[in-house]
Amino acid sequence: MNYAKIRKFDVSNGPGVRTTLFVSGCTNNCEGCFNKDLQDFNYGEIWNEEVENDFIKQVKSPNIVGVNILGGEPMDQIKDNVLYNLLKRIKEETNKSIWIWSGYLYEDIIANKERSNILSYADVLVDGRFELDKRNISLKYRGSSNQRVIDIAKSKKYNKVMEIEI
Fold it and tell me: How many domains, the chain?
């Protein structure tokens, strides 16, 4: 897996001070995408053990309340288990909240074994492709009105999409 950027102290994505990983690679090609460069799976740097250990160390900081995974497209990171293993490690070593942004819909993610495995360690999913004609800069944590902020645990419990009211 390649990654484009790590923000150690991010306050613009998700509640509180969080550490954010922008993965490289996306097949959605949404019109108006704000991270066009990140659609290339070879963009950025190669994720390795040293980068991962530094990332986990950062997440363990008492100043950090959680992790954000954006891209690119996190749910396109299924050619290997790198992202899955990272999320598992974050939960096991820190138990901090994990938010994931994906152009895929929740329903499609849970129907795919590899994507569902990635989602299994996340607490919140912001789903849906960015739609330029539905762009709304007043929305919190998303770019267009079709996107949903989903509580994953509640959605699994009730077997239907449960959005978080923001």
Answer: 1
Residues in the chain: 166
Is residue 43 within 8 Å of residue 2, measured between CB atoms?
yes
Neighbour-count burial for 78-87, b at 16+ CB within 10 Å, e otherwise:
beeebbbebb
Q: What CATH code is carried by the domain that includes residue 45?
A: 3.20.20.70
pTM: 0.94
Asked, for residue 106, whether it belongs to a domain, the answer is: yes
Consecutive 10-residue runs of the chain (166 residues): their mean pLDDT? 96 94 89 78 96 98 97 94 97 97 96 96 96 91 93 96 91
Does residue 79 form part of some domain? Answer: yes
Q: CA nearest 147: which of 110, 106, 109?
A: 106
